[in-house]
Amino acid sequence: MRDGTGRTIDYMRISITDRCNLRCRYCMPEGIQCLPREEILTYREIEEIAACAADLGIRHLKITGGEPLVRRGCAGLVGRLKEIPGIETVTITTNGVLLADVLDELLAAGIDGINISLDTLNSDRYRELTGGGDIGRVLTGLGRAAETEVPVKINAVSLDLGAENWRQLLELGRDRKVDVRFIEMMPIGYGKNFPALDHRSLLEEMRRIYPGMERDERRHGFGPAVYYRIPGFLGSAGLISAIHGKFCSSCNRVRLTAQGYLKTCLCYHDGTDLREILRREETEEERRELLKQAMEEAIRRKPGAHCFERPEAITEGENMIRIGG
């Protein structure tokens, strides 16, 4: 379907949990309280929303968290979402810690893409950033996933950790068919307090260090990344520049939080509570029509652009762990 500005909305990110097995300092440091389980959508409720979304024109789903792989049965959910008429792709974003353990299940379920969040290859720095994470487990999962036919991408938040840090990450794509994408830090939640790289400067540095780098016009997915090809690399480099490369005019996404709140823009609290509709005592047919109506109305009200460049206008007060990655 189209929103009020005429943009086609065909992509929904679905958070299935606010729990995580890491404690990244800019996302979910120690001390954050997780939601009671009864406040989290059941898989059946997620499937019901996804079916309504497909009726409205959503074609691509991304499973996120928290860390989605800490929720038992995640791969089974992927398989059931794949069976919904109209859904073309189901992908997942994970921190990679459990990926090697469940990769075969995800492949059997028909997963269409795997994104791994990884901000550094320095094991000590990784442990510090993630509150004690073991980078060895992540690299094992990455290695196994990269050997499959499923597209694999690295998502690295552009923290200001020095040129050597982003260069090491980028080199993961030299000998592997893995795209490495750098994501500008969103100025909401704990992320507001972290120094981050300006992607305009990062791109200049990349061009200087990798002469011959050129735009890659091939389609790599359904998100806003701008890709570049580096001579001699099997994978591509990507930049997701929400702040310094504002892509709101082509935004095609909405987000579903683990609590069932449909968000249309990260910057604003605006959206609609779908869980309240799901748990009414209507018939399934009545509930489905109410869900579609609520989703359609929310999407039509989707803001034309974010206001991250004007922090005083941001109305979203939740941390990313509650919104969904």
From TrEMBL:
Enzyme Commission no: 4.1.99.22
All residue ranges annotated as the Radical SAM core domain in the record: 4-220
Residue ranges the record marks as coiled coil: 274-301
Keyword Ribonucleoprotein: no
Cofactor(s) it depends on: [4Fe-4S] cluster
Biological processes annotated in GO: Mo-molybdopterin cofactor biosynthetic process
Pfam families documented for this protein: Mob_synth_C, Radical_SAM
SUPFAM superfamilies listed in its UniProt record: Radical SAM enzymes
Gene3D superfamilies noted in UniProt: Aldolase class I (3.20.20.70)
Superkingdom of source: Bacteria
Catalytic activities: GTP + AH2 + S-adenosyl-L-methionine = (8S)-3',8-cyclo-7,8-dihydroguanosine 5'-triphosphate + 5'-deoxyadenosine + L-methionine + A + H(+)
Entry-linked InterPro entries: Aldolase_TIM, Elp3/MiaA/NifB-like_rSAM, MoaA, MoaA-like, MoaA_NifB_PqqE_Fe-S-bd_CS, MoaA_twitch, MoCo_biosynth_MoaA/MoaC, rSAM
Protein name in the entry: GTP 3',8-cyclase
Origin species: Candidatus Lachnoclostridium stercoripullorum
Organism classification: Bacteria, Bacillati, Bacillota, Clostridia, Lachnospirales
